[in-house]
Design goal:
There is one protein chain. This protein has a domain at about 120-305: Beta Barrel (Porin), CATH 2.40.160.20. By secondary structure, the chain is mainly β. The chain is built from three helices and 13 strands, in the order ααββαβββββββββββ. The longest helix has 21 residues, at about 1-20.
Length: about 300
């Protein structure tokens, strides 16, 4: 009986070992079936041998430029659960090209180019001009009295260029009011005059300079001229233009310079010397009237168009 039991145990052991060796290593053996019943959603992982298929070349749509980039093919597994040497597959990968962007810009005008080059040209323009200054009536007679006062102008000036921008002619029409007074024998004498000034000036400057020089003639058309005499509390007034004491037109020599702030605005400094007789008579109400007018003024002009 003991011998049969020994033979049975020996045969059972050999059969068990043989059965264990024939179980594939890729199959997970579940020893406890209770865990599977407790968790039926648990997955049983198995590995199925995959045949090594021939590698194929995959091409994307033909781009502008391509570059061959090596990539690994899916790794195959042999029947003996051994890793197979990967096969290199070349896939054409699109490389984005850098496109040149061309931006068209409008070509600068002549004014823009001159502004960039710091050029202040003499251009054709119409400007609003104003000035304010001192007025003097210098008496040519030794015994005569000199008169002093103020003058201001307001009007339009028109500029014509004569070349590329360094020489021009300035004309226009400006309203002017001027008064000059003096005390003679305790009486105050005051000349009040209104006129329309018409300048005819030549303007000179360097191309890149902000400074311009003006020189020319000034014609004044007299529209109003009266003499006020104040004696104590009494004031008398005489119309000199109506009495034909005043010459209808006066002439003077006008000179000065302009400083450009920018191409559309400038300051002016002007000097006026009278070259004609203001009055047709020498004596007006006991006052020596052989006057030579003289004015100093500071002006400002802005280009309208």
């Amino acid at each position: 009986m003991n011998n049969y039991l020994k033979y049975f145990i020996l045969i059972f052991s050999v059969s068990y070992l043989f059965a264990v060796e024939t179980i594939p290593a890729s199959i997970q053996v579940i020893e406890d079936s209770s865990s599977l019943e407790a968790n039926p959603a648990q997955k049983v992982e198995t590995t199925v041998p995959v045949e090594n298929e021939e590698s194929k070349t995959v091409e994307s749509p033909a781009p502008a430029e391509t570059e061959m980039v090596p990539q690994e093919a899916p790794k195959a597994v042999s029947e003996k659960n051994e890793r197979v040497q990967p096969t290199i597959v070349y896939v054409k990968e699109t490389v984005p090209t850098q496109n040149q962007i061309i931006i068209e810009k409008a070509s600068p005008s002549n004014l823009d180019i001159k502004a960039l080059r710091n050029i202040y040209p003499i251009d054709l323009n119409l400007a609003l001009a104003a000035s304010f200054g001192s007025a003097f009536l210098a008496n040519s007679e030794n015994e005569g009295s000199d008169f002093s006062g103020l003058a201001w102008t307001l009007g339009l000036k028109l500029t014509f260029p004569l070349n590329e921008g360094t020489t021009g002619v300035v004309t226009g029409a400006l309203f002017k009011y001027r008064y000059a007074s003096a005390v003679i024998k305790n009486d105050r004498y005051r000349f009040n005059r209104m006129a329309v000034d018409v300048p005819l000036l030549f303007k000179f400057k360097m191309e890149r300079s902000r400074l311009a020089f003006d020189a020319g003639l000034l014609m004044s058309v007299n529209a109003y001229d009266r003499l006020e005499i104040s004696t104590g509390n009494k004031v008398t007034e005489d119309d000199l233009l109506k009495a034909s004491y005043t010459n209808p037109v006066d002439w003077g020599f006008l000179t000065g310079f302009s400083v450009y702030i920018n191409p559309r605005a400038s300051f002016q400094f002007n000097l006026l010397f009278g070259v004609s007789e203001m009055y047709s008579v020498v004596d007006i109400k006991g006052v020596e009237a052989d006057f030579t007018p003289f004015e100093i003024s500071l002006g400002f002009s802005v280009v309208l168009f």
